[in-house]
Task: inverse folding
């Protein structure tokens, strides 16, 4: 029986992945075109990874420049300014509002994101969604640690992770819980990966019911 769902945020509850990609494009707009293409490719392939880890990779492997702690903080601050209001205003993923409202009595909800926690909590508060979630986890805490915390309250067969990035899949796999991929423009990322898939959250309740039946049979 499924009792709790761990959600990634961007691209799973809110249609905001394009906003983050656009922010990376603007953040590094002064770099060479070839480097910008590599930066965007890395960002998209590593969706759900902390922006600080991406900055480190970009500077070391693409720009070939030293990244100080001060520059990293500055980049993060600029990134936040670029995305905050847009993410607050972005539409929910189809079916998200209905699922969260209708099934609150049946499931507990958690958020595990790579967005810095203070920023994530503020965005969720501004979107008036805080009351839905038992816990909200963001960077620097990793997603797999967020799952481990949830496992202190629930058994592995009672938890499901819903994400749209490899980091989400890996966090679920490391902790041996079921993973559901929300598929949008990320089809290539999950090519060859054996996992459950849904287009949007209109399909989530049926998927959870099937998983619960499978476990009770």
Result:
């Amino acid at each position: 029986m499924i009792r709790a769902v761990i959600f990634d945020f961007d691209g799973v509850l809110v249609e905001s992945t394009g906003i983050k990609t656009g922010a990376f494009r603007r953040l590094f707009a002064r770099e060479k075109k070839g480097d910008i293409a590599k930066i965007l490719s890395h960002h998209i392939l590593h969706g759900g990874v902390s922006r600080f880890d991406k900055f480190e990779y970009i500077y070391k492997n693409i720009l070939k420049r030293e990244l100080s702690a001060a520059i990293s903080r500055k980049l993060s601050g600029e990134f936040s300014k670029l995305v905050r209001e847009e993410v607050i205003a972005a539409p929910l993923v189809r079916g998200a509002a209905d699922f969260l409202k209708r099934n609150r009595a049946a499931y507990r909800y958690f958020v595990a994101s790579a967005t810095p926690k203070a920023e994530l909590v503020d965005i969720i508060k501004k979107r008036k969604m805080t009351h839905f979630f038992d816990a909200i986890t963001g960077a620097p805490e990793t997603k797999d640690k967020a799952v481990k915390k949830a496992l202190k309250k629930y058994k592995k067969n009672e938890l499901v992770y819903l994400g749209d990035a490899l980091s989400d899949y890996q966090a679920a796999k490391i902790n041996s819980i079921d993973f559901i991929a929300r598929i949008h423009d990320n089809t290539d990322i999950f090519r060859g990966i054996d996992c459950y898939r849904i287009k949007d959250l209109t399909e989530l309740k049926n998927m959870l019911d099937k998983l619960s039946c499978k476990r009770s049979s």
User: Anything to note?
Assistant: The chain has nine helices and six strands.
